[in-house]
Amino acid sequence: MPPFNLDDIIQSITRLKPMPSNVSLILREIEKQDLTIEELAGMIGLDQVLTALVLQMSNSVALGYSRACSTLNEAIVYIGLQRVKSILISSSAAAMMNNSLKGYRLGSGELWQHSLVVAVTSEWLARMLRYPDPEQAYVSGLLHDIGKLLLDQSVLNNYGRITDYVEKRGVQIWQAEERMIGIDHARLGGLIAEHWNFPVDLAEAIRFHHAPPFSKVNQRLAAIVNLANSFSEDYQQTKSALLSFHLHPETLRILRLAPKEIQDLKSKIKASGMFPGD
Questions:
Q1: pTM (2 decimals)?
Q2: Cα separation of 245 and 248, whole Å?
Q3: Residue 205: phi, psi to the nearest 5?
Q4: Does the domain made of 98-278 have the CATH classification 3.40.50.720?
Q5: pLDDT confidence bin for 86, thresholds 50/70/90
Q6: How is the chain split into domains, by residue range?
Q7: What angle do CA 102, 204, 242 make, to 5 degrees?
Q8: How many alpha carbons fall within 13 Å on the CB side of residue 207?
Q9: Would you say residue 64 has pLDDT above 60?
Q10: Residue 74 and residue 57 in contact, taking contact as beta carbons nearer than 8 Å
């Protein structure tokens, strides 16, 4: 079956705005390591969108933050520089991720909430599994589904065919996307990450979060996101035929986990009270 408007989908990546110059500037200043909290707050405060995003994240109960931060200075101190960097890196996608996705049957904010759950779980798993960069795992989890932003219209146009293929063949949504459209949301997300000049590890984790063994750079990172995404089913309020929580069979091998340890990790997450309703 020939791909459906695949060239248009690929071209849509080039039409995405690059990472804003002010965000790149702030990230460079943070790397200098002599930037004060007041200076950083001043730079972020010049952009209303970034200001709102930092305050939103620092006050998110879903992320385990229990106190209210009313100023940027307080928010930055509370969540830390590494989390601020993660917010800046993801800021280009954040606004779009709050939109509804009609093709995937996700309402306003639902993709963002799912992504937050996967991000927090990825970071937690990274710490539990002694992965050296938990913040990298957090960002990878937060952005793992960004490909859906550009694939949504094509999924909407092919919704009946895709859902029928998923149900009759017993395959995952990303496999149906590849078959019916010519590209899946994970691969498209990896291309978006490359367009935004994300680090290779991050781009590959996004691209291979459903198939970690195919990552050539960092299989552990992709496997952590794959495991976190599978765990997120327990906290998913939206029901859709086009959501996949499939745990790749090679993920356990890559992370050196036994099946029993998966249940132990799930129990520890619930016991931690990390998510409301646990």
A1: 0.85
A2: 9
A3: -65, -40
A4: no
A5: confident
A6: 8-91, 98-278
A7: 25
A8: 23
A9: no
A10: no
